[in-house]
Amino acid sequence: MLMNPPLAHADLIATFKRAQADAAHKLGLIKTASQKGPQAIKAAVDAAARAEKRRDAYAKKLSAVGVVVED
C-alpha cells in the first residue's frame, strides 16, 4: 500500500511519540522496581534501555526525512 509522503511522516511521528512515551514510562518503572530488589531493577533498566533505543531509532528515521524532533 502506497501512502502520501505527509501521511507516511504522520505515521512515523505517531510511532515516535508512542516510543517516546514508552521510554519515559519504562524509566519511571525503575524507581518502582528499586523497592523490589536488584533483579527487578536490572529488568527495569534493561527494558528502559530497549525502549530508549527504539525511540532513538525512530528519531533517526524522522531526521532522515527532514522532521526535527525535540526531547
Present the secondary structure layout.
Blueprint: H1 5-33, H2 38-64
Helix pairs in contact: 1-2
Protein model, in words:
By secondary structure, the protein is an all-alpha fold. About 80% of the residues lie in helices and about 0% in strands. It is built from two helices and no strands. Helix 1 (about 5-35) packs antiparallel against helix 2 (about 40-65). The chain is elongated and about 45 Å long. About 10% of the residues are buried. The model has no long low-confidence stretch (mean pLDDT about 85).
List keywords for this structure.
mainly alpha; single chain; 2 helices; 0% strand; elongated; 71 residues
State mean pLDDT (0 to 100 scale). Answer: 85
Our count of helices gives: 2
**Considering DSSP H and I runs of 4 or more, what fraction of the residues is helical?**
over 70%
Overall morphology = elongated
| Spans of at least 5 consecutive residues with low confidence | none
Distance between the termini: 31 Å
Query: What's the total number of strands?
Result: 0
Structural class: mainly alpha
H/E series, N to C?
HH
Radius of gyration: 15 Å
Measured by DSSP, the beta-strand proportion falls in under 5%
Largest sheet: none
